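Why do we bother with holo predictions? Because pocket geometry can differ from the apo form. Keep that in mind while you read this record for heme C.
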Amino acid sequence: MKKITQLMLITMLLVIAIGCEKLVPGAPEPGDTIAEPTEGLTPSQLAQFVQGDELFAKVFTPAEGLGPIFIQSSCEGCHVGDGKGHPFNTETRFGKLDSNGFDFMLDKGGPQLQFRSLQNYIAEVLPPGYTHTSNRIAPIVIGMGHLAAVSDADILALADPNDLNADGISGRINYVVPKSYFIPQPFHIPNNGMYIGRFGKKAKEITLLDQIVFALKQDMGLTSDFDTEDLYNYQVGIGATDNVPDPEVSSDVVNKLLFYMRTLKTPTRRNENDPDVLAGEQIFDQIGCVKCHISTMTTGSSEIEALSYKVFHPYTDLLLHDMGSALDDGVPEGSATGSEWRTPPLWGLGLAEDSQGGTGYYLHDGRATSLEQAIGFHSTGEASNIANNYYSLSQTEKDQLIKFLKSL
Ligand code: HEC
Ligand code: HEC
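The structure, written out:
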């Protein structure tokens, strides 16, 4: 009897404690929010970070140049809370394959479909004659500055295009023609005038700046000094665009977004010392997931002191891998073929459900709604042996592996 009373008292006290906690929101626990600055920024860098954060969340209006055709009105609209996005905002690239090769149909509104439009303007539809589409959901964008600061030499060292070590896994570089405004850094290594692509799902962008300029235009219909030609719907007619003078966003806006992308902190892990998580990490290494999802990288020298020579854990090699027929969308980008995808970083994987509205959507187009399914799609192409290793695990081992992935 006495014990029960004590239990009741403790429960009541707990209820009160939880109640109070809800009324008085404290500072978020580490890992609760992912839009945090990298540690070690100077006060003026922190101020720039905050301005970039606001621009990332800013909803652009038609008067500021949004559209006339677009997919979303803010970066954050797709990269919710800097995390993975919902398939509702899927990007569709399209084109036509014929005897001359793959044509992105630039004269018919390619390479990307803008399926939303301003009032009184017609949204784009897929043009007649297209043969292939490539659908992509927004990836997590935290830690990008760390990936941007890895030297080309480190990426080259991971590549094994002819599988010389005969482990069944190659890893290829997507060499990309640089944009006119590209300024190589000391760590960039050219190859016949081309440079190593590392951003985007097929690694078609060399720098974060390239990615941002592309997003402003192709996702939001915003011109900048780096790309001054506005979008218009080819069905409506050449030049039929909005009346906002170009460039619609200033270089200052682009630079602040870039600074924000560079200085977003890498994700904080959760439960990393849980025995199951530790066992799962070992399984991840043993069965060979780590051959592509490389756990540790180091940045080179950076003029942002906080990014210089930092060891971090992205779980990617930034290389292209042939994932076989299961993930082949027939759309090439740079030298990446339809079945080749850049290994995505796995960091932040356990936070995906939060930013995607409760259900996790995985792989480039969000076709997998569980991590088990995402691994299942590794069964054709280069990762097939490793996927088989996964299927030979006991149920306990599989559960431990998933627990590890969710701790990232
Ligand atoms: C319509 C949804 C959408 C909007 C709006 C959008 N993005 Fe993205 N973002 C994507 C998708 C999809 C990709 C993958 C693109 C690819 O495969 O080429 C991506 C890729 C990226 C990447 C590279 C990530 C990686 O792992 O390589 C960065 C960085 C990024 N976006 C930043 C931004 C910024 C900054 C803005 C605002 C200026 C923005 N995005 C607006 C959907 C969006
Ligand atoms: C040959 C290289 C390779 C190996 C080995 C490999 N992966 Fe992948 N993984 C990839 C690529 C490339 C993708 C992206 C495919 C896509 O988006 O269509 C991917 C995607 C994923 C995703 C989805 C990530 C997301 O953000 O949607 C998960 C989860 C994943 N891999 C886990 C694993 C696990 C666990 C193993 C070991 C059983 C493994 N991978 C082995 C290359 C590899």
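Residues 38 and 263 are 5 Å apart (CA to CA).
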